[in-house]
Specification:
Helix content of chain B: 25-40%
Radius of gyration of chain B: 17 Å
CATH architecture of chain B: 3-Layer(aba) Sandwich
Strand content of chain A: 15-25%
Largest sheet of chain B: 6 strands, mixed
Order of helices and strands of chain B: HEEEHEEHEHHHEHEEE
Distance between the termini of chain B: 34 Å
Structural class of chain A: alpha+beta
Radius of gyration of chain A: 33 Å
CATH class of chain B: Alpha Beta
Number of strands of chain B: 10
Number of domains of chain A: 4
Number of strands of chain A: 20
Helix content of chain A: 40-55%
Structural class of chain B: alpha/beta
Strand content of chain B: 25-35%
Shape of chain A: elongated
Oligomer: heterodimer
Shape of chain B: globular
Number of helices of chain B: 7
Chain lengths: 784, 238
C-alpha cells in the first residue's frame, strides 16, 4: 500500500496529554497568560503613551527649555536673546515665549485643612499648550483649569470651587500640561508631588488677581531642531553661555536655566515608563525561564516514566529528533497559546490596568492605542524561544541515551558505583535523606523559583519598608523643624533681616553638583553652620585658608557615592563650572538628603562671601516675623518626605496585589514541582503502602523533606532576594537626585518567608490527598 | 533462493562482553551464523546465554565488541547513529516481552505509530482484522488484556512491513493459551508477509514451529539446524 500523507500519530497524544494533566497545564497556562498579558499591556500602554508624548511635542508645541530672569526682560533684550546678537552659535535663532507664573497656596473649597501649593500660569496659546481632558479652559477671571492628576488626588472636579492665593476660582477644566507630565515643583526634587503641588491655568485677568511673586519665566524653542541628544546638549550649553553674557549685560540675573532634556517634569514620566518596561521585561523573562525549567522537569519526569515506550519507538526507528519534537510540543504549545491569549489580554484588559496605574501617577495627555510589534516579539516570540531553548537542551540531554538504555531503564549515565553512605541516623531520617538526594535537581529548580518569588517579594515588602523607614528617620533626623532660605539678607531699608525667635540660628546654604562618582551632576546641598550649632552637632572647625576645606558629609551622600572619611570630593557650580575640592572629615548621620556640612566661616571663605554672610535660619519654632517676600524656600518635614509619600501613593496600593501574585506564583511553582516529586516516587509510595506504612508515615517521609527544602529555600531565598533587590535599588537610585537607603526589617523577612510557607501549606493539602490516592497496585504495574 | 537471499543475515565472529577486569564477562564468544530471507528463526537458550544481546545487536540497539553483522550486504558496524536509526526505521520491526504501548493512544493509533515510519505500510484496518483486534480498535491499552496488548505491539511492529521482525520473548508475560494464540499470529504473519522473523525465547517447544533453530549457551552456538518438519503453533504443547 502506498503511504498516504500521514501525520505523526504521536501528535494525537498531545491533546490527550493535555486533557490527562489539565490541572497542571491550565495552572501554567493561566499564570503565563496573565503575566504575559500584564507585560504586553505594559508595553502597549507605554508605547502608546510615549507615542502620544512624542506627538504632543509638536501638538502642544513643547518648549526646548526654559529660563527664569530676576526681572522682566524688555522687548529689546528679548529680541537680542532670541537672535543671539553678537554671538555666533549654532543654537540660534531661538524663539522666546513669555511663560510667567506665580506660586501660591491652593485650598479646595470642600477641604478646610488642605494646604497645597499651586503654580499658576496664564492660558498658554503659543507654547506648552494644555491637553484638556475634561471640561474646558478658563474664560473669565474667576475660572481655572487645574492638573487632572492633582485634582484626582485632592478630590476636586470640574465645577468645584477652589482658592488660589485666597482668591476664589471655579474649576472649569482638568488638564495635562505638556511641560508637567509629572508634577515636579523644583527640578532638583527627587520625586514629583501630585499630592500637594498643582499647576493651573487662568485668564490674564485671573492671573492678575493672584498676589504673589511673579516669576519671569521664559520658554524657548530652537529655530533649527537639534538632530540628536548630543547636539541638543551642545545647543543648550551654547545658549546658556550666551544667555549668561546677555543677562549680565542687561543687569539681570539668570535664576534658573533648564533645557528640556534635563527637565524632570517633562522627562521623568517617559523615562520611568521606559524603566518599567525594561523591568517588566526582565521579570517576565525570569518567570518564563523558571516556568520553562518547570516544564523541562515535568517532561523529564514523563520521559523517565515512558522509558520503555521511548526505547521501543527508538528501536522501531523513530529518530531522536522526532521524539525531541514530540516532547517539546506541549511546553511550546502551552507557552505559545498563553502568549497569544496574553497579547489579546494585553491589548484589551491589561493595557487599561497599566494606563490606570500611570494616570494614577503622571499627568499624561490623552492617548490612542498603537499596535506595537515589539511587544508581540518580546512577549510572544522571546518567551517561546526561551522555552524552546531550555526544553530542547534538557530533552536533548535526556534523550541522548541509546534505545537499549531506555528499554532497560538505565537513564543515568553516571551511575554511582556505590550508594552514598549516610551517617548512622535513624531509619526514617536516612530514608528522607535518600529522597532528598534523589530529588536534588527538582529541589534546585524549586529553590531557583522560590528565590525568584522572594526577589519579587523583597520589592513588594522592601519598598514600603524603605519608605516608612525613610519617613520616620528622615524626619527624626531633621536638624530643625524649619529651614528658612532667604532671597536676600537685607530688607528694603538695607537693614539685616533678623527674627525675634530665640530658637533661630543663622546658616548659609548653596547648591553644587557632583563632578565624579556614580552620578555626575547630582545636586548637593552645602551647608555652612556655626561651630557650636545646636541643630547640626558636627563640631565643624574652621579650616585654615591654605588647607583643603574640611567637611562632613551626610550618611546618604556617603552611602550613595561610596565615600568615607579621609576621601576628597570635588563639586562644581551648576552653571559656571567653578570647582571646589573638600576633604571629608567625617560622616554625619543624616539620611534626608545628599548634603555637605562645613563651618560657616569656611563656607564664607570658600564661596568668597563677606565675613557675616548667611542666607537662612534654622529653627525649631516657626518664624512668622520675616516677610514672605524675603523667604525663598521653607523646608519642613513635608518637603523632606515628599519623595517617599509620592512613591507610597504611586506604588503602595499595588504592592498588596503584588504580594498576592507572588504568593500564587509560589503556590503554583511548589504545586508543579512537588507533583513531579510525588509522581516520581509513586511506585515507591505504593510499595511502602503495601508493606503496611500508614498515610501519615508516608506523608512524613515524602513531604517532610519537601517541607524542609521549602523552608530552607524560603529563608535563603529571602536573604538573597533582599541582597539582589538592594543592588537593583542602587541602580534605580543612582539615576535619581537624592538617596533613599534601602531598608528591609526583620519583620519583613519573616513576612516573606511566612507568605511562601502559607502557599506551601495550601499545596501540602493537595499533595497529601494525592499521596492518599496512590493505589496499592501501582507498585505492581509494568514490572519487567 | 539466490545467494544474497540465502545469506540475507550474516554474523561473523561476533563477540560481546560486559564489565572490565576481573568482573569482565563474555556474553557472545565468536558467533558465526547465517539466516536466510523469509526464514522463521528461533534463538533458544537459558538465561544469560546471550540470546537477547544477540537480538539487540542484530536490531542495531547494541553494538558488538568485534566481528560483524551484515544484513543484505550492509554491515551494521559501518553505520553511525543516524544510519542505524534509518536502518531500524526501514528494515526492522521490534516486539518485546513487555508491550510498551503508548498509554494515551488507542489500539489503531498505536499501530499507526509503526505505520508512520514506513513508506509502504500495510493497511492498518486490514491488519487490525488479522490481529483480531477490530472490535477493540478504539480502546486504550489499559482496557485490553495482556494478550491483546501484545497483539497490538506485534501489529505496531509488522505494520511497516519490515524486512526483519525481531521478537524478544514475546510470550514471556503471557499465559499458555494466549501465548499459543500469539505464536500463531506470528506464524501467520510470517507466512502472509514473508518477513524474516527472529525470535528469542527460552521455551524449547517453540523450536518446532521454526524453520531455523539456533541454540546458544555461554555465548557459543551449541546447535544450528534447520527444521524439515514444522509444527503449527496451535499444535504446540508445553
Amino acid at each position: 500500500m502506498k503511504k498516504k500523507n500521514q501525520s505523526n500519530p504521536l501528535r494525537r497524544r498531545i491533546i490527550r496529554q493535555f486533557i490527562g494533566e489539565w490541572r497542571k497545564y491550565i495552572v501554567i497556562f493561566v499564570f503565563l497568560a496573565l503575566t504575559i498579558g500584564f507585560v504586553a499591556g505594559m508595553y502597549v500602554a507605554n508605547y502608546s503613551m510615549l507615542q502620544a508624548f512624542e506627538n504632543g511635542k509638536n501638538e502642544y508645541n513643547l518648549e526646548d527649555g526654559h529660563f527664569e530672569l530676576s526681572k522682566k526682560a524688555s522687548e529689546k533684550e528679548l529680541a537680542e536673546i532670541a537672535s543671539g546678537k553678537n554671538v555666533d552659535l549654532r543654537a540660534y535663532p531661538v524663539t522666546i515665549y513669555e511663560n510667567f507664573y506665580k506660586n501660591t497656596q491652593e485650598k479646595p473649597a470642600n477641604k478646610n485643612t488642605a494646604n497645597n501649593r499651586i503654580r499658576v500660569y496664564k492660558v498658554r496659546e503659543a507654547v506648552n499648550r494644555a491637553c484638556v481632558l475634561e471640561g474646558r479652559l478658563p474664560q473669565t477671571e474667576n475660572e481655572i483649569a487645574i492638573d487632572r492628576m492633582h485634582a484626582d488626588n485632592s478630590e476636586q472636579k470640574v465645577g468645584d470651587v477652589m482658592y488660589a492665593g485666597g482668591k476664589e476660582y471655579v474649576i472649569t477644566g482638568l488638564i495635562a500640561l505638556s511641560d508637567y507630565s509629572t508634577l515636579h515643583e523644583h527640578n532638583t526634587d527627587s520625586m514629583f508631588d501630585a499630592l500637594t503641588f498643582d499647576v493651573g491655568l487662568v485668564t490674564e485677568e485671573g492671573f492678575e488677581r493672584i498676589e504673589s511673586k511673579l516669576h519671569y519665566n521664559y520658554a524657548w524653542k530652537y529655530g533649527n531642531e537639534p538632530s540628536d541628544e548630543k547636539q541638543e546638549k551642545k545647543y543648550a550649553d551654547d545658549f546658556m553661555e550666551a544667555l549668561v553674557t546677555q543677562t549680565v549685560k542687561a543687569d539681570m540675573e539668570l535664576e534658573d536655566y533648564i533645557p528640556r532634556y534635563s527637565n524632570q517634569a517633562i522627562n521623568f514620566a517617559p523615562e520611568d515608563m521606559g524603566s518599567d518596561e525594561a523591568m517588566g521585561g526582565v521579570l517576565l523573562y525570569i518567570l518564563v525561564i523558571v516556568l520553562a525549567f518547570v516544564f523541562a522537569i515535568t517532561v523529564n519526569s514523563t520521559i523517565t516514566k515512558e522509558a520503555s515506550v521511548i526505547g521501543t519507538l527508538r528501536a522501531s526507528g523513530y529518530t531522536k529528533g522526532e521524539l525531541i519534537r514530540h516532547y517539546m510540543a506541549m511546553p511550546l504549545l502551552v507557552t505559545l497559546f498563553a502568549a497569544l491569549l496574553g497579547n489579546v489580554l494585553g491589548y484589551t484588559f491589561f493595557k487599561n490596568v497599566v494606563v490606570a496605574m500611570y494616570y494614577n501617577s503622571y499627568s499624561l495627555p490623552a492617548y490612542e492605542t498603537v499596535w506595537y510589534y515589539e511587544a508581540f516579539i518580546r512577549t510572544t516570540v522571546i518567551p517561546v524561544i526561551l522555552v524552546l531553548i531550555i526544553n530542547y537542551v534538557v530533552i536533548y540531554y535526556k534523550l541522548r541515551l541509546t534505545p537499549l538504555q531506555f528499554l532497560r531503564h538505565e537513564l543515568k549515565t553516571s551511575r554511582n558505583k556505590k550508594a552514598l553512605r549516610l551517617p548512622k541516623f535513624k531509619f526514617f531520617r536516612r530514608f528522607r535523606l535518600r529522597i532528598m538526594l534523589q530529588n536534588l535537581p527538582n529541589y534546585l529548580v524549586l529553590f531557583v523559583g522560590i528565590f525568584f518569588v522572594m526577589l519579587l517579594l523583597s520589592f513588594a515588602f522592601g519598598m514600603p519598608s524603605t519608605l516608612e523607614h525613610y519617613q520616620k528617620h528622615a524626619v527624626d533626623q531633621m536638624f530643625a523643624k524649619y529651614q528658612y532660605i532667604l532671597k536676600q539678607t537685607v530688607d528694603k531699608d538695607g537693614e539685616e533681616i533678623t527674627t525675634e525667635r530665640k530658637a533661630a540660628e543663622k546658616f548659609a546654604v548653596t547648591t553644587l553638583v557632583t563632578t565624579s562618582g556614580i552620578r555626575v551632576g547630582e545636586s548637593v546641598t552645602v551647608y555652612g553652620v556655626e561651630k557650636d550649632s545646636k541643630y547640626i552637632k558636627a563640631g565643624l572647625k574652621k579650616t585654615k585658608e591654605d588647607e583643603t576645606p574640611e567637611v562632613m558629609i551626610s550618611s546618604s551622600y556617603a552611602e550613595k557615592f561610596h565615600l568615607k572619611k579621609g576621601d576628597s570630593v570635588t563639586l562644581s557650580e551648576k552653571y559656571t563650572y567653578d570647582e571646589y575640592t573638600f576633604r571629608i572629615a567625617g560622616i554625619y548621620d543624616y539620611m534626608g538628603a545628599v548634603t555637605v556640612f562645613m563651618n560657616i566661616d569656611t563656607f564664607r571663605t570658600v564661596f568668597d562671601h563677606p565675613k557675616e554672610y548667611f542666607n537662612g535660619f534654622l529653627s525649631d519654632e516657626e518664624i512668622t516675623d520675616i516677610s514672605e517676600d524675603y523667604i525663598a524656600t521653607t523646608i519642613s518635614a513635608e518637603d523632606i518626605t515628599k519623595i517617599s509619600r509620592q512613591l507610597d501613593h504611586s506604588m503602595g496600593g499595588y504592592m498588596d496585589y503584588f504580594k498576592v501574585a507572588c504568593m500564587i506564583f509560589a503556590a503554583i511553582l511548589i504545586y508543579l514541582l512537588t507533583k513531579v516529586i510525588i509522581e516520581h516516587n509513586e511506585k515507591a509510595i505504593s510499595m511502602v503502602k503495601i508493606l503496611g506504612y500508614e498515610n501519615k508515615e508516608i506523608t512524613s517521609l515524602y513531604m517532610l523533606t519537601t517541607t524542609w527544602m521549602v523552608v530552607v529555600s524560603a529563608i535563603l531565598g529571602a536573604y538573597l532576594g533582599v541582597k539582589a533587590i538592594i543592588l537593583v535599588w542602587y541602580e534605580i537610585m543612582k539615576d535619581m537626585d537624592g538617596w533613599l537607603s534601602p531598608y528591609v526589617g526583620i519583620s519583613e523577612y519573616i513576612k516573606m518567608v511566612v507568605l511562601v510557607i502559607i502557599a506551601y501549606l495550601i499545596v501540602m493539602i493537595i499533595d497529601y490527598k494525592r499521596i492518599k490516592r496512590i493505589p496499592l497496585q501501582e507498585a505492581l504495574k509494568n514490572m519487567e | 533462493m539466490s545467494e544474497r537471499e540465502k545469506y540475507f543475515l550474516e554474523i561473523a565472529d561476533l563477540r560481546k562482553g560486559f564489565g572490565k577486569g576481573d568482573t569482565r564477562q563474555e556474553v557472545l564468544c565468536g558467533l558465526n551464523l547465517t539466516i536466510s530471507k523469509g526464514e522463521f528463526c528461533v534463538i533458544l537458550g537459558p538465561s544469560g546465554s546471550g540470546k537477547s544481546t544477540l537480538l539487540n545487536i542484530i536490531g542495531g540497539i547494541d553494538s558488538a565488541d568485534s566481528g560483524y553483522i551484515s544484513i543484505n550486504g550492509d554491515k551494521l558496524e559501518d553505520m553511525g547513529e543516524k544510519a542505524l536509526t534509518a536502518y531500524r526505521r526501514k528494515h526492522l520491526g521490534y516486539v518485546f516481552q513487555m508491550y510498551n504501548l503508548i498509554p494515551n493512544l488507542n489500539v489503531k493509533e498505536n499501530i499507526e505509530v509503526g505505520a508512520y515510519l514506513s513508506e509502504h505500510p500495510l493497511d492498518v484496518d486490514e491488519l487490525i482484522h488479522t490481529l483480531g483486534l477490530y472490535e477493540h480498535r478504539h480502546k486504550l491499552p489499559n482496557q485490553l488484556s495482556g494478550g491483546q496488548q501484545q497483539r497490538v505491539s506485534i501489529g505496531r511492529a509488522i505494520v511497516k512491513n519490515p524486512d526483519i521482525l525481531l521478537c524478544d520473548e514475546p510470550t514471556g508475560a503471557l499465559d499458555y493459551n494466549t501465548s499459543k494464540e500469539t505464536l500463531k499470529l506470528i506464524e501467520d504473519i510470517n507466512q502472509k508477509y514473508g518477513n524474516t522473523l527472529i525470535m528469542v525465547t527460552h521455551n524449547e517447544e517453540i523450536r518446532h514451529m521454526a524453520d531455523h533453530v539456533i541454540k546458544l549457551r555461554d555465548g557459543i552456538v551449541r546447535k544450528n539446524e534447520r527444521n524439515t518438519e514444522k509444527i503449527s503453533a496451535i499444535d504446540l504443547e508445553w
